[in-house]
C-alpha cells in the first residue's frame, strides 16, 4: 500500500468515514474518469475506441463535453457526465478522487493552449498525484494504463 491511499485521511492517516470497502476489486468495475481538452477530444475518442471492450464493464465518469463526445461516438458505453470542465467539472472530478471514488484518471490535456480554468486543471492533477491515482495525460500512457486494468484492480483490492 502507499503512504496515502484512497481510504485514508491524508492528514490523519485514518480511514475515511464511509469509504472503506468501496474500492474496486477486479479489472471490471474500475471507476474511470475521462477528461479531454477540445483539441484532444478526438484523441480520447480514438483511445476509447481502441479499448472499447476493456472499458465496457467499467464505470466511466467524464466532464460534460468530453462525456457527450464519447457518448455520441459510442452510444453503447455508459458514461456519467459531470459539469463541463471550465464550469466546475474538473473540480467535481477532483472531489471524486478526494473521496476515494475514482480508480483511474485519463486526462488528455492540451499542452499548447492557455486555459481560463488552468488552476482547476492543476488542482485535479495534484489530487491524482496526492491520492496515487493512476493518471494518463496522453494516449501512450493511457494505453499502458488500459493494458494494466487488471493490475490496478488487484492493487485496489489490497
Ligand atoms: O476543460 C476540460 C478539462 O479541463 C474538459 O471539459 P469538457 O469535457 O467539458 O470540455
Automatic annotation (TrEMBL):
SUPFAM superfamilies: Methylglyoxal synthase-like. One of its GO terms (molecular function) is methylglyoxal synthase activity. Its EC number is 4.2.3.3. The active site is at residue 90. Residues 13-25 have a biased composition (Low complexity). Pfam families: MGS (PF02142). GO terms for biological process: methylglyoxal biosynthetic process. Substrate binds at residues 37, 41, 63-66, 84-85, 117. GO terms for cellular component: cytosol. It is an enzyme of class 4 (lyase). SMART domains: MGS. Residues 23-158 form the MGS-like domain. Residues 1-25 are annotated as: Disordered. It catalyses: dihydroxyacetone phosphate = methylglyoxal + phosphate. Keywords: Lyase. Residues 1-12 have a biased composition (Acidic residues). Catalyzes the formation of methylglyoxal from dihydroxyacetone phosphate. Belongs to the methylglyoxal synthase family. This is Methylglyoxal synthase. The gene is mgsA.
